[in-house]
């Protein structure tokens, strides 16, 4: 008899579109709230048609969607099966024209006739099956199976499989199971039909509610999938199907809650499948962890995965955990718990877990709340748990009665008072606070953080005390977190303060030195006259400035020069893109130290922080400062960190004024680029951290800035050079007391190789034509009404270098303007492509190579339209990419970065705006970075290029700087490598400065026209006057360019100033034996290129293959390459 089977507990969700056999059907929701988080559309993609029938019936019961359209879809689906009666039933429910009885009988007869034919084909099997079932048979099952394999024809086994499938399509699952069982016994595992039999048997066991057998079949199928020779794509697809089918089993089997955690969270291949194919499964994984109290240890790992995938999937259940354990937002967790109940009620897979989920979720809120508050009002607790006060009190009483809570209730006052630190045999304990256990001989003294004796004990040996052990000391029970010999504890020099071992164990040597330097600065030990407590940590990008600051803040929160904590409140100001990064880093390094952070945001007002004395660290973005000025001044901060502190280079900006008004003397400014344009900006930073340390700006300019800048001008008198050197050394002596800068050289040993490549690309004919037109227009139009300024012309020329299409005009404008003149020379957009810009052609080739090599790449540009163009190229080739620019919301930035860095994420391209994301981001998920265009400020380029080669990177890194040869880009590059010396002279102690303004002569040089066809070398290599053949050698600058060396290179270090132990480079020596600067004003800095490999076109195929540029040989004019390797 044809039949239908509907599982009694099923689910359905939101307005969705189901796709079977290529046809998509959409259903509109009746209830937006109930349908919002529905996963039926996603789940049905991975389920067999028969497994979806219970889900669709559940959906009908919930009345979430339009019933008529849903029934029509079920009818269409059932029509593809042999379930005649079920089809007839659906038609009746639709009130359609009744099927004539003869027609219904004919349909049944056709099904039965086919069944009889198939049964006749497998008749030889029937006797064997009866023998297997006969308890009196003398043959064991193995003998019967062996006999079947030897005697039965293979076609009969295939007929049995066909019959099983036909019975399954009729809804006769029990009879189908018998034949599937025989096929599974007789078939060899390497049979191509064996996998289908395994899937069919699992489906039947699920539909007949045989959960124990279904679990066994699930394990068997999983082992088969892992051991079969599938392609990577096939095995990923098989795992995705198995994940969805297993959810049906796990939530109906007694051991399923543990098994789902073990399989989904701790089997990397299945976690990878979830993150790649079906991140919505995190709902069911999170539910399993929440309702399983015995697996709370999995929370940390689960939350990490949820945060990684929050950019691609989130729902109230995952957000509940984020609010509770990441943001410590109890109000947000309460609201999400209410939404969770709606989600669970409407989810087929977990509807049976509703009561358990709510109970355990409330307990999680309560436990987390109790870690912060020792005394809690019942009204407050009821509000957090979505309960009435009477219900909350009864709930707590039950917890105490069941020995799940150490507490006592004062009903009169309405308080719950937590009892901390009592001796207990319970597994989960709460602790009163931090302290020290001093063991001497066989005596032990327990002291609190202030040094007050709590209790004493005897009979305890130091050998018995190990990290992690729980001991009874007098009337208290303690857990030993750290054990160290007092004589071996790391101490900060010049003080008796001990840096906590929990952070020093993670610090590298240069970071330990950095923490010691910062500590001496903020305690005033390095700036006695004039007094100052500020510091600038100016380490280059990637040296771990954040970790050094975390070590400093935690040290000051715990102790100080006189034993008492020096800080109670810490303020961290950072760009919005780095807010979450700071929070993650603090959690990462101090997760076991019970240090909480408060992030100011739209839903987290600063007023709440002022009322939360238990939260010591406040994190706020520069963008939020202006909105929170009033509240910020009501809180007294003891320590301030300003990340990316070069934002304060202008004392007129609002952020500078707001922060400078705060009564906080201990200020630490973090920046990888302390000098970006001029010494006035450097003065602003100095005056912010240590006001008055070098007087007013007028004093600074007269004594330091003017002599130093004048001494670097060509043709200056020797006396001016001597004075400049003298003032430079004097300034270094002052700033060296509170400015610490180390270069990446100190961590090269920890990093993989870095390949830096400067690629000079051959301009296309269209680019050359447009450049000539623009320069001619500029020369002929000076003084005219439609003349363009030098800055406008520079912008236009840079756009032409990126791609000619970027100068196109949208809408109406001045028809005689330069932009319109250039736009008229552009061909139709359909005829334009990568061939019109060699840089875009190189990017196209690189992306193809990265896809083949399965590596990730970051492409950086200063123009959003350029990113749009590259995004269009990715869309054309169906490359998956993500993008981070100025329009990306702050909360989304960290999610984009986390998703991109996740190896399981299939987006292998990140389009990054240099201005929005060039600072502070950690993009070690990529091993390649392309700087598509450059900026006048070399610091911006250096910031952007340091995103991938930093601590944590494991792969060799390739950084490509693309420049259009013979163009304004090449001249900007030449000026850039001169400009970087400004930071080096004052902070790095290198000996070079560049002029900071463009003269008429420089503008003329900048806008000169060069014929690419008449040049055989790039301008930069010609400027070096390098005689090499350009075949990959790195010329020796000493032997090849003696005439290009700046006299400042030969200055000796004969100063009498003491060298700080925190200063990596010696001060510049004085002396006046040099008469004038060299002839080439770019030579000093550009000579560093003489240490790089020089490759002239045609570049070696081997080199191009190594760089992934094998397809781009024709586009390259010249190539400089430098390989930075860790010292052996």
TrEMBL record:
GO terms for biological process: cell division; double-strand break repair via homologous recombination; formation of cytoplasmic translation initiation complex; reciprocal meiotic recombination. One of its GO terms (molecular function) is hydrolase activity. PROSITE patterns: HELICASE_ATP_BIND_1, HELICASE_CTER, PCI. Transmembrane segments: none annotated. Keywords: Cell cycle, Cell division, Cytoplasm, Hydrolase, Initiation factor, Meiosis, Mitosis, Protein biosynthesis. Residues 845-1004 form the Helicase C-terminal domain. Its main location: cytoplasm. CDD domains: DEXHc_RAD54 (cd18004), eIF3E (cd21378), SF2_C_SNF (cd18793). Signal peptide: none annotated. The keyword Protein biosynthesis applies. Residues 250-423 form the PCI domain. Residues 526-692 form the Helicase ATP-binding domain. Gene3D superfamilies: P-loop containing nucleotide triphosphate hydrolases, SWI2/SNF2 ATPases, N-terminal domain, Tandem AAA-ATPase domain. GO terms for cellular component: eukaryotic 43S preinitiation complex; eukaryotic 48S preinitiation complex; eukaryotic translation initiation factor 3 complex, eIF3e; nucleus. Belongs to the eIF-3 subunit E family. Component of the eukaryotic translation initiation factor 3 (eIF-3) complex. The eIF-3 complex interacts with pix. Interacts with mxt. Interacts (via N-terminus) with spn-A/Rad51. This is Eukaryotic translation initiation factor 3 subunit E. It comes from Anopheles quadriannulatus (Mosquito).
